[in-house]
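Cross-check.
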Amino acid sequence: MDHIELGQLGENLAAQHLALKKFEILDRNYRWGKSEIDIICKRDNFLVVVEVKTRQTQVYGQPFEAVTRSKQRQIIKVTNQYIKENQIDLEVRFDVVSIIKNQFQTKIDHIEGAFYPLR
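Predicted model, tokenized:
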């Protein structure tokens, strides 16, 4: 399985996980320019923006560690565009779903409020 297939599998697992936790999925793979948000959903009057990171092993660290400050700024920019485009008036939360998926395990960690925009 190449990294693109693994990423798609991870996003599907994350969407299933979120749906089971009663999140309403609004959009997947929302693109603006060259940037993308993996999953946009709603729960408890929050717009929840979810970045999904999937790895086969944690040899190079936990998947969520790949959501750098630079990646966070990019996600925040795209989120602002999504909010304008869809005229959304909800508080925003940024979550990360971190997945280890290989032949031996499927481990899903959902980190709510994983990061916040700088003020």
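The mean pLDDT is 94. Helices lie at 3-20, 69-86. Passed to J.P. for a second look.
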